[in-house]
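Sequence dictates fold. Below is an illustrative record:

_____
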Amino acid sequence: MTTDTDNTTPPGVPNYFGIEREHPMLSIPCVIKIGNRRYVGQRVSITQLDVAEDIDDLEHGSKALARIEFPFENFAITLTAELTPAEGDPRTFLFSDPTGEHLPQLRYIINNVIAGDLTTLKGALSYSGPTQPKTPNPKQETSLGERIRSLGVFAVSLALAVTATVVVFTRYTTSYELYPVFIEEAGLKMQATVAGQITLLNPDAQPGEVIYAIAANTGDILSMRMPRAGEIKVATNIYEGATVLPTDLILTVLEPIAETRLTTLISIEGLTRALEGDPVTVDLPDGREVPAKVILRETTRAAALSGDLFVPVDLEVERTRLTARDTSMTGRLKVSKTFMGALGYGQE
């Protein structure tokens, strides 16, 4: 029997391991051998062992190396640990080092007893857990109809996801300008330069002839000549005797080849985006979307430099996109981004 009576310091449980009575005592049969002495264990925990007889050959505070056997039907599990008698209890051993090398195996046995996989039968331990591994569920083959249904659900889900993505992307990258786009026939616009009354209006004038005259409020008569050949389109509410103010449109000398002109007021933010390359589109009431290019005027620069929030611009479109039948129609100006532009890689 190996003892150590010189060490008078009683064994203790490490602070991080809890207290001695914290761990449950379980009725697990075992045999404790210390030298030539044999004890029958009755209850076991992580920190102590209870035996059936008094411990009379060891003093409190001494340590002894013990072999702890857990008997099974055809074999036994043996653990080696250092024990010491408990103070005030002649039938209890304490583990000198509860966290020693024996702990993993002892904990495994205790956990299996708690789980019910190990039971006590006639003074020995018996395994009562499952004896066969779980068999995998047989693979069920899906029918053609179920496969088609699954593909249909996947296709619908994918379509919904794509639609939602397009809607969110469009809302994030597209903005409409506040002012409408006016579509009119292209030509030379002749406007009143003074306030007064129209005394002469000659829509049939030839180049060099007087086309209209205005009696100014100052008493002067201003006559305007036909600048070039072309069809004349008189503005609405303009006739002989009508009163005009400066910059009022009198008439338009149309181009020899019928063309359209698009004008609007665009915000400074929209103008900046258009100049940076963001696509500009004119949405017409009939559902057509006409790509356009923003053309700056001299008045555009003047209005921008004066701090105006909206500046006048012209819009250029392909000739085949609009015809004379589209004049007097209005549209909406849309400024958007391409996918690469939204990612910050510039526009196409």
In short: Helices lie at 103-115, 144-173, 268-275, 298-305, 339-342. Confidence is low (pLDDT under 50) at residues 1-10. The chain has two domains: 3-127, 175-342. The first helix runs from residue 103 to 115.
